[in-house]
């Protein structure tokens, strides 16, 4: 059953726009708001319910906008606040909602408060808004603890005090240009509440919360002592601290004070659904990305476990599940599925050398059919609808992700999934802009093959499949919210029914075609065999 009205988020299909790489109307090589506006017809034809736009606020772009100077200005690279309002209104006019990003854990180092903190010196109230500490060792020249940055290297940087002497250290779980805020400080709480209200007042329908499981740090900032996040959930000193939940309760009250109420989706890489569910209790956030689904290998038993655990645990607090296969931080889905195994990790970019792109495409086609058949909401990452692979051979000198430099050129980081989109099969930038100014990351020569325009009307294209499936999901009363019932199936096959009416079967055996239930074939991600069986790496919807 499909959700309507204020419950729209329970089963919406949300398309992620990474504005730098979507469409470049100004022609400077970096995508912008005018570019998004020019491509609204693409979004309408795709059949999505909402977009989520990555940060577009004023920023020196040390982490592609996740280093925010102020929420009340749009970075001139992307446009103006007025253009953002026009975009929101134009999308509303065609029935598409807008979700924007909020980055509460850290600011840009150019944020006024951080600059004031640097100038004011140790012990000052200005330093209290961030996490400054004296170093360890006799001269304070060792970092205050052993935390590491998510982009490699230490999570602490030492500052030079006004008198020119080496001074205190400040915490940055990401790049040094992204100092962590102190969430015990009332100014922090107030500034973020103001940011929410500013954009809610401009008409945005919700926020995606960056590193939603961070914010608070354990008192005393204890050492990790080798503790990793995956194996010690709940005891980690800088993830998932209890104070977070009170903040999200207050954010929920703000969202609920609007008519219609606004919504939140959490980016919380919490490796345990029991803890993840705490973020989506009825008085906290609405939904949270399902990274267990994204990172799950192409294995029916493991996939079934992820689906069951997601539905049961989130369902126990009344929250819908979400399903996601890609975003701007992970290698593109066709390239991951082109490998025998996909490894869990921050960026999932350490892709094995050997791969089979055709297999990746087949599995990605089946996976979208699986996602759209499950109860809950679905996130798509721009370019996924084109079947775009990861660009795996970007040369070091063009890499922009801080991960590359901070790892000494050993970790390729996330640039490979952020290359500007191809819209037309030819032209210097494949229609990303009309000036021919090369995009901020170079597009490979093979990009044109995946261009949106090349797929228009082409039989069996990924774009055609996405459009057809999104329309089919919308039209199908058995889909949207609700339950699933598993069907008996051979090992390696996922098979379930929605509302007693519509079956979805996915053949993950990797070995042989499988039988499908009797009924009318609604859609198939490939072609059934001549005797009506489902080939490997293929999905089918059947009306029983
Ligand atoms: C998660 C975002 O998705 C990622 O792109 C960013 O680098 C980090 N948070 C830090 O803000």
Any key phrases for this structure?
544 residues; alpha/beta; 8-stranded parallel β-sheet; 5-stranded antiparallel β-sheet; 15 helices; 25% helix; globular; binds 1-deoxynojirimycin
Can you offer a commentary on this structure?
It is built from 15 helices and 18 strands. It has helices at residues 19-22, 33-38, 40-46, 81-93, 112-120, 186-201, 244-256, 273-276, 291-295, 300-315, 333-337, 357-373, 402-406, 452-455, 462-475, and strands at residues 13-17, 50-53, 57-58, 70-74, 97-102, 132-133, 156-160, 166-171, 206-209, 263-266, 287-288, 322-324, 377-381, 485-486, 493-498, 502-507, 520-524, 538-543. Strands 11-10-9-5-2-1-13-12 form an eight-stranded parallel β-sheet. A five-stranded antiparallel β-sheet has the order 14-15-16-18-17, with helices on one face. It has a three-stranded antiparallel β-sheet with strand order 6-8-7, with no helix packed on it. Bound molecules: 1-deoxynojirimycin. Residues 63, 66, 103, 174, 210-211, 267, 328-329 line the site of 1-deoxynojirimycin.
